[in-house]
């Protein structure tokens, strides 16, 4: 929002619709009806699903993870990779039999995949048992959509994009009480040539800093120990806002909130990663000692074709600047193998960059064309089989680097947050601020607390002991 005085809150009409849904459900069900939300994709989608669940609870639905128990099933979808779309269509198709078995079952599809007009049209014509399809910027209208369908109205298809407003105060149901998400911005202005996100999430809109701080303070007050700030490109937070607060300043403001908690963030774009941000990371003791900085390809020529707007040299200079400030920082990244027009010589530059930076871990993908993006129509002469061989070569290198990195941590002590119980009875899983999971013999009462742990062993997974 560019004007702090314009703050669209959760619409009263949606609260009215939620009340009308509750009334209808009480009239139609003896027991509390249940809703199942199936989530695909990134942390942003998980965060969106938590808001969907909050609205479902407001409408009077209980929640279940079993589609067979559900009276309402919502698929919150991802459009980043073709495989994800195939999975969604397969799982949506399976609801046909569920609808036959349960009269009145409502099926909805939302999220990035649903925002694409071609997908919405396919759902309309080939999946007549799908009742509701809605896009990424009208999620807050879910009570309205459900009420219309419960009332016997026509199937709902709503894909409107509103690139001006961010709706605040949407009800939220965070299942995890130790760590949680705070979206700080929505949409993307980067238009990387391989990426569908700007077309399905809209243009960049940053939340007002005071709304973010209010949500962060509430989470800390409620006992949350890890806050993850989300955005397609958190580094460009604040562009267009009148208050002049950029991402580095926002980090410092959240860091100043009283309490014992950790701050994470995803995802950083190298073109907007500044020394000011790196200084904030160094200075803020609550910000994790980790930076996820996707480089995608080690060749400047290919990066230009990707419209990434940085070079190999610029990326490496950021790594160097970060390590000067934080010598033990852990780097993770995303890599695309086999972008259209990429040669083996280009690919070898990716290998050499990986060897130079020595990432703690990588998220690696073979290029998957997305219809509607510029890269989808670029000449792509290298076969999928050949790209697969490159991919295997990359994985072999990264496995070696990661093993060496992980083994170097044995004997070191880290402050960990105990997040969950381990499979072995009497053990907990703690995560370091460099995103390493360690199994530790510890009492269950330590869940949701911080403690110092010394890593004693690595055999593919880490184990450690509590420091006295």
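^ structure tokens above, recovered residues below v
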């Amino acid at each position: 929002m560019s004007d702090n005085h314009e703050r669209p809150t959760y619409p009263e009409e949606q609260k009215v619709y939620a009340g009308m849904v509750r009334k209808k459900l009480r009239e139609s069900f003896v027991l509390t009806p249940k809703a199942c939300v199936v989530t695909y994709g990134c942390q942003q989608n998980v965060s969106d699903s938590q808001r969907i669940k909050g609205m479902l609870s407001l409408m009077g639905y209980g929640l279940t993870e079993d589609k067979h128990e559900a009276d309402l099933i919502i698929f919150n979808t991802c459009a980043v990779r073709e495989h994800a779309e195939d999975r969604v269509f397969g799982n949506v198709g399976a609801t046909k039999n569920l609808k036959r078995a349960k009269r009145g079952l409502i099926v909805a599809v939302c999220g990035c995949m649903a925002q694409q007009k071609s997908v919405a049209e396919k759902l309309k014509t080939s999946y007549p048992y799908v009742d509701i399809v809605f896009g990424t910027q009208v999620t807050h209208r879910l009570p309205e959509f459900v009420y219309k369908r419960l009332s016997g109205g026509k199937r709902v298809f709503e894909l409107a994009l509103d690139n001006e407003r961010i709706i605040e105060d949407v009800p939220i149901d965070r299942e995890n009480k130790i760590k949680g998400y705070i979206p700080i911005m929505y949409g993307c202005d980067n238009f990387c040539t391989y990426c569908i996100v700007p077309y399905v999430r809209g243009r960049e809109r940053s939340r007002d800093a005071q709304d973010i701080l209010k949500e962060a303070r509430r989470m800390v007050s409620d006992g949350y120990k890890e806050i993850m700030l989300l955005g397609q490109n958190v580094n460009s937070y604040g562009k267009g806002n009148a208050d002049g607060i950029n991402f580095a300043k926002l980090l410092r403001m959240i860091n100043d909130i009283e309490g014992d908690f950790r701050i994470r963030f995803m995802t950083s774009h190298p073109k907007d990663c500044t020394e000011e941000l790196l200084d904030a990371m160094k200075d803020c003791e609550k910000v994790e000692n980790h930076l996820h900085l996707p480089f995608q390809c080690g060749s400047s020529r290919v990066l230009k074709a990707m419209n990434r707007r940085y070079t190999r040299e610029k990326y490496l200079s950021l790594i160097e600047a970060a390590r000067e400030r934080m010598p033990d920082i852990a780097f993770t990244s995303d890599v695309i193998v086999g972008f259209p027009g990429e040669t083996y010589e280009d690919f070898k530059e990716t290998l050499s960059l990986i060897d130079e930076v020595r990432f703690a871990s990588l998220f690696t993908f073979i290029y998957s064309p997305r219809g509607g993006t510029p890269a989808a129509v670029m000449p792509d002469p290298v076969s999928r089989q050949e790209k697969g061989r490159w991919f295997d070569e990359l994985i072999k290198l990264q496995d070696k680097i990661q093993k060496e990195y992980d083994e170097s941590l044995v004997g070191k002590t880290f402050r960990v947050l105990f997040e969950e119980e381990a499979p072995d009875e009497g053990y907990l899983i703690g995560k370091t601020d460099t995103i390493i999971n360690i199994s530790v013999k510890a009492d269950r009462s330590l869940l949701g607390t911080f403690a110092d742990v010394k890593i004693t062993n690595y055999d593919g997974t880490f184990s450690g002991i509590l420091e006295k």
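Residues 1-5 have pLDDT under 50 and may be disordered.
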